[in-house]
Write a structure and sequence with these properties.
The complex is a heterodimer. Chain A is built from no helices and eleven strands. By secondary structure, chain A is mostly beta strands. In chain A, a hairpin with a 2-residue loop joins strand 7 and strand 8. By secondary structure, chain B is an all-beta fold. In chain B, the strands form three sheets. In chain B, strands 2, 5, 6, 10, 11 and 12 form a six-stranded mixed sheet that branches. A four-stranded antiparallel sheet of chain B has the order 3-9-8-7, with no helix packed on it.
Chain lengths: 115, 112
């Protein structure tokens, strides 16, 4: 398996624009997580899904952020409108349920810069 | 290659005792950062400690300290006076240039 795939790897956009980040989890994994990493705040869990259903979105910073998982192999994180303070690295991770559900496999991240 | 390896999938420690979690890494970058994150059952990632590679002094944060061996590319985490609340998954993470690389994690159990 290729691991967790995220695209794009880098995104530079202007304030006010819509940004869509994409993630393909490892095949067979039924948990999917979105994280945001900044040097100031560290790694923050934004939202996670189980079997395509959002379980906990309490980490989503505000209404400008939304996440979807239309099927088991694809998820998006959308920011509309984007702001400079959204600049960060966004990680997607996936894991199995059951005994191994705590072992998360992280994607390479998307570095977002909002000018 | 830029890697982070944690060779201990699971560890356990008696309450009030000391435990050390292992982490080794590899990078060709001369300037990098290393982190330990804790993930309790709530799933929120909590930054435990941060080490800048250019600093020779080992970072410490209260009961948490690291043993940073740059030549050996080793970055272990020591937890002293373990508490029940320390039970969690611990991730070792490297920031190499602009690339974050996560280790697979070590599940720590604290026994009363």
């Amino acid at each position: 398996d290729a691991g967790v795939i995220q695209s794009p790897r880098h995104e530079v956009t202007e304030m006010g624009q819509e940004v869509t980040l994409r993630c393909k989890p490892i095949s067979g994994h039924d948990y999917l997580f979105w994280y945001r990493q900044t040097m100031m705040r560290g790694l923050e869990l934004l939202i996670y899904f189980n079997n395509n259903v959002p379980i906990d979105d309490s980490g989503m910073p505000e209404d400008r952020f939304s996440a979807k998982m239309p099927n088991a192999s694809f998820s998006t994180l959308k920011i509309q409108p984007s702001e400079p303070r959204d600049s960060a690295v966004y990680f997607c991770a996936s894991s199995l349920s059951g005994l191994h559900r705590d072992e998360q496999f992280f994607g390479p991240g998307t570095r977002l810069t909002v000018l | 290659a830029q890697t982070v390896t944690q060779s201990q999938p699971e560890m356990s420690v008696q309450e009030a005792e000391t435990v050390t979690l292992s982490c080794t890494y590899d990078t060709s970058e001369s300037d990098y950062y290393l982190f330990w994150y804790k993930q309790p059952p709530s799933r929120q990632m909590i930054l435990v400690i941060r080490q800048e590679a250019y600093k020779q002094q080992n970072a410490t944060e209260n009961r948490f300290s690291v043993n940073f061996q740059k030549a050996a590319k080793s970055f272990s985490l020591k937890i002293s006076d373990s508490q029940l609340g320390d039970a969690a998954m611990y991730f070792c993470v490297g920031l190499y240039g602009q690339n974050f690389v996560f280790g697979p994690g070590t599940r720590l159990s604290v026994l009363p």
